[in-house]
Write a structure and sequence with these properties.
2 copies of one chain form a homodimer. By secondary structure, chain A is an all-alpha fold. Helix content of chain A is 62%, strand content 0%. Chain A folds into 2 domains: 55 residues, Arc Repressor Mutant, subunit A (Orthogonal Bundle), CATH 1.10.10; 127 residues, Orthogonal Bundle (Tetracycline Repressor, domain 2). The longest helix of chain A has 24 residues. Chain A is elongated and about 60 Å long. Chain A binds a DNA duplex (30 and 30 nucleotides) through helix 1 and helix 3. Chains A, B: Keywords: DNA-binding, Transcription, Transcription regulation. Chains A, B: This is TetR/AcrR family transcriptional regulator.
Chain lengths: 204, 204
DNA sequence: ATTAATAAGTGCAACCGTTTAACTTTTTGC
DNA sequence: GCAAAAAGTTAAACGGTTGCACTTATTAAT
């Protein structure tokens, strides 16, 4: 999903053109994907729809899947903040559960039909799901370090890393019949109790 | 890895030839991969080394990565058995931890140098790691059902599914400095305590 | 035994995502 | 102004994968 409202620096003629090309590519890609399905749209189609060559496309995006997703620098910051600035008396996995449940993309609530279709596209396209998962999982190390710092454990503490890993994984728990919220709750059932009971006692 | 010792049914001339071709392909692939590295060996190289055409290769294996891995029907059975036939008084996550630690492929212990090189190949090749992960994770549903059945929970119980998912994931916890065993232990630290403390009390 | 149906294997050309290399344009620093 | 660096563009290729038309070998039915 592309969000063009995040510009601030006074960018020169060149960078403006670059951004425009990038945007044209992302727009064309999303439109075509929604129209014909991810697998039925080729890189060459997208490039032509944006009136550039395929080589130019790959200068802007590292691969076909990346055409659909935006930067995620802010995502990691928010994730860490959820741990660091959690309300008084709330446990770390508790704060993480709240964050995951709050930021999970639900299909029905936001009135934006366009966004709903975007979510469906990702969920129904294995390639895109996999790509999103890899992107999301890259935050594991940062999250693990934040958790460890928060409780004064060594940066590589295995339990902290496991909590980080499992927390991030909750977003991709497969759910056939039960709805997503229930499955996530079930997962944190394990994690919260496990964290509280784990050796080391004085965990926040 | 290929293991030719699992034949039992009296197979006809045709299926014998088929198996031979398949074996030739797998052997050639592994040999070439170890020799030159996964990325430096093309499908066409492997096909030629096995003296078949690329079309034939894809009749036997669904993709390049599959040339390296064997069937995994037995793996799932063993996994389920670890839960079902666990010793008296041992908890389910306890049995799973024991199974995971026992069957994890350690580089140094088995005296087979060939096998060691095979493991290194997989671990150093992102494509192969990903493929192995996907194969392994396919057992999630079966494991979740076995766990649920074992404690008399509904087949789709979210906590059981979460335990299954997280258990399988332990094999792919990234570890930069700490060794694998320590990280797995840290993960089960969470899971075992969480499972014991989770609502439902009478869990075995 | 002949024959029809099935399945393995072949060769080739194509498709698709991605990369390379050569070339042109724009920007930047002197 | 001007040369060097950076970014943009293009056509061609590469590597995994698939489709198609065809040959050959095995099995099963008549």
């Amino acid at each position: 999903m592309t969000d063009a409202t995040t510009e601030r620096a006074p960018l020169g003629r060149r960078e403006r053109k670059k951004a425009a090309t990038r945007q044209a590519l992302a727009d064309a890609a999303l439109r075509l994907f929604l129209e014909h399905g991810y697998d039925h749209v080729g890189i060459r189609d997208i490039a032509e729809a944006a009136d550039v060559s395929t080589t130019t496309l790959f200068k802007h995006f590292p691969g076909k899947e990346a055409l659909v997703f935006d930067e995620d620098a802010e995502l990691e910051a928010a994730l860490i903040a959820a741990v660091r600035e959690r309300p008084e008396g709330r446990s770390i996995p508790g704060a993480l559960r709240e964050y995951v449940l709050r930021t999970r993309r639900a299909k029905g609530d936001d009135a934006d039909a366009r966004f709903t279709r975007f979510i469906e596209l990702v969920e129904n396209t294995p390639d895109l799901r996999e790509y999103e998962r890899r992107m999301w999982m890259r935050h594991e190390t940062a999250l693990a370090r934040a958790i460890a710092e928060e409780i004064g454990a060594p940066a590589e503490d295995p339990t902290c890393r496991a909590l980080a890993h499992f927390t991030l994984e909750t977003r991709f728990l497969t759910c056939e019949k039960a709805d997503v919220g229930t499955v996530i709750a079930g997962a944190f059932e394990l994690l919260e109790h496990g964290w509280n009971a784990a050796a080391g006692g004085a965990r926040g």
